[in-house]
Amino acid sequence: MSGLTELFILLFADDVALLATTPCGLQNQLDSLKVCCDRLKMEVNKDKTKVMVFRKGGHLSKHEKWYYDGAEMEVVNKYSYLGFVFTTTLSVKQGTDHLVAKGKKAVFNLCTSFQKCKEMTKETFFKVFDSKIQSVLLYSSEIWGLHRLDSIERVHLMACKRYLGVPIRTPNKMVYGELGRFPLFVASYVRCVKYWFRLLQMEHTRLPNQAYRMLISLDENGKNCWVTGIREVLCKTGFYFVWLQQGVGDVKSFLCVFKRRLLDMFTQEWTADIRDKERYVTYRCFKKLFEAERYLSDID
After folding, report:
1. Of 96, 119, 93, 104, whose CA–CA distance to 168 is shortest?
2. pTM, whole model, 2 decimals?
3. Per residue in 34-47, pLDDT tens?
4. Are 104 and 112 in contact (CB under 8 A)?
């Protein structure tokens, strides 16, 4: 797209990320960084400085090596930047694996506290989960949250099943129904659409807005990208007109309606499964509505 700014460097606190489309371009940037650091009397931590080549696969050429101040830089296949792990293929699953690991550890600590504290209610248990663990699992989900990741949801279900004291193989729909809990993808979808509105409201000179307009161009040319996911989720939930208008008047009110639509769609899906699937033939004899059961308030 015309008018877009070519990006060479990202700065955040004391972190620097150099961007280039060619091996020679990256080496030139490293050389320029050395000159700049010498002038400002600053030093680069060479041990923490890594090179990552984003590609679909294959091996690097033996000539693809980079140097800073005479020292060869290590080329890695993944790197954590601002709390998110990037891989050479920009894999969402691999990028969120560390979030899953942190989430599992936090769930274990929460369940241990739950076993020790017999007075902990359902409301307290899941309030802690939502504030402490869900925030970890959905970190940076504004970017990857349109992907419904089973690995993320399994951590949520693990906490739910540990609270109920049921086997890990208990059908997930039954667990959701007993607790009145909804999958985490609902929250991640809302985060993505909320971030979409933020991009729309940015000045065209802002880099995130320029990146968004680039993604629109890719989507219009048939390339599947983040914008494609936003358009599809709005269409699926009956809000395609919002996409066509590229915005709404009252964002806060719309997000409430959008979330309610996602919750209603999942409730309808849950009701249909419980009613029609053979595996729930006994369960549906005493469970027909998607709501938390009253007996849970009496769990010790």
Report:
1. 104
2. 0.85
3. 999 999 998 988 88
4. no
